[in-house]
Design goal:
With 338 residues, the chain is mainly α. The protein contains 11 helices and 2 strands; from the N terminus they run H-H-H-H-H-H-E-H-H-H-H-E-H. The chain has a two-stranded antiparallel sheet with strand order 1-2. Helix 3 packs antiparallel against helix 10 and helix 4 packs antiparallel against helix 5. The C terminus is likely disordered.
């Protein structure tokens, strides 16, 4: 048995007052641990999108008909609520796993030596986005799965994924000003790709809001727009993103860019091809649930691929880390007895 350390009253008070500082003074995670903690938040950000899609695709969106409790009388799903209640309540519980992953990332970033305040702030940004999206998820239930709130729920999840990936990437960088690895014209082309991919995802939420998977068997309001027309616009935007990716790869090749940006552009192209196959198959097979779920997972991979293309075009040497005084050094020295 590992002996439990005895804590003084002052130590207990400090742990209650500032638990992150208390942990940071007693634990120094390795760089690999910090990076793994950040990656766990990325994985859970993707997982919450996929499981949220499963809730809608199984018609379980109102499996728990109210929020924050599952029913007016019960905090959890009951046996009378059946399969749909289990699915919806399970997705709600997964939010706590997501919070745990984000919390681990915050603690690891705060305890790393030297402490990098910017990375810790990115961790806290994830936490507040999770809290905001949890509330928005409750609003989605309370308004009966209104498609506009469902779209906002998905887009906020994409924002969480963006911050989580940026946190993971920043841990592998230094803290000096970023140095571009490509010219201004290449950078502008890349930002055009980012904007087009963002529009692609946003229009995808409209396709969902106008489509047949409303999230519940009841008469759920749908976006009053022709589904085939908006689906065609979505496909057109997808081809724009593919064209920009191919153009970017050729430009990077022509200017003899570093291998990192080239590989990231290649990876994005492969992801887009796989996502395109799934998208066309689901369109011509009347959007079966399993393919729609895979398409939602693919949208996360596409966005990750786009962000990695953007982030690969700069560098910050790892040894150039701005050192922040550790927690112990921040404490004022006691006044000398005189």
């Amino acid at each position: 048995m590992v002996p439990v350390p005895k804590l003084t009253r002052a130590e207990v008070a400090q742990a209650v007052r500032n638990p992150l500082q208390y942990i940071a003074e007693r634990w120094t995670p390795s760089p690999r641990t910090v990076r793994r903690a950040a990656m766990s938040a990325v994985v859970m950000a993707v997982a919450i999108v996929v499981t949220g899609g499963a809730v809608r695709l199984t018609g379980s969106g109102l499996g728990c008909p109210t929020w924050p409790k599952c029913t007016d009388e019960s905090l959890t799903a009951t046996s009378a609520m059946g399969f749909h209640g289990v699915i919806e309540f399970g997705n709600r519980m997964l939010t706590y796993v997501l919070c745990a992953a984000v919390g681990w990332a915050i603690i690891a970033a705060r305890s790393a030596k030297p402490w990098r305040r910017g990375v810790t702030r990115l961790g806290w940004a994830q936490f507040w986005v999770v809290m905001g999206n949890a509330v928005l998820g409750g609003v989605v239930v309370l308004v009966g799965l209104n498609p506009y709130t469902v779209a906002a729920h998905f887009l906020l999840s994409t924002a969480l994924l963006t911050i989580a990936l940026l946190t993971w990437h920043r841990i592998g960088e230094g803290d000096t000003a970023p140095r571009p690895l490509v010219g201004k014209a290449v950078s502008q082309l890349t930002w055009l790709l980012v904007v087009a991919a963002g529009l692609l995802i946003a229009v995808g939420t409209v396709v969902t809001g106008a489509g047949r998977h409303a999230g519940d068997s009841s008469d759920v309001h749908r976006i009053p727009i022709d589904w085939k027309m908006i689906a065609q616009l979505h496909a057109d935007l997808a081809w724009v993103v593919v064209a920009l990716t191919v153009a970017l790869w050729f430009v990077l090749k022509a200017v003899d860019a570093p291998i990192g940006p080239l590989h990231r552009a290649r990876d994005l192209f492969l992801i887009l091809m796989a996502q395109g196959v799934i998208g066309y198959v689901q369109y011509f097979t009347d959007t079966p649930e399993i393919l729609v779920g895979l398409h939602m997972f693919g949208s996360c991979l596409v966005w990750i691929g786009v962000l990695r293309v953007l982030l690969s075009q700069r560098e910050r040497p790892v040894d150039a880390v701005a050192e922040v005084p550790g927690p112990a050094a921040e404490q004022p020295e006691p006044a000398a007895a005189g």
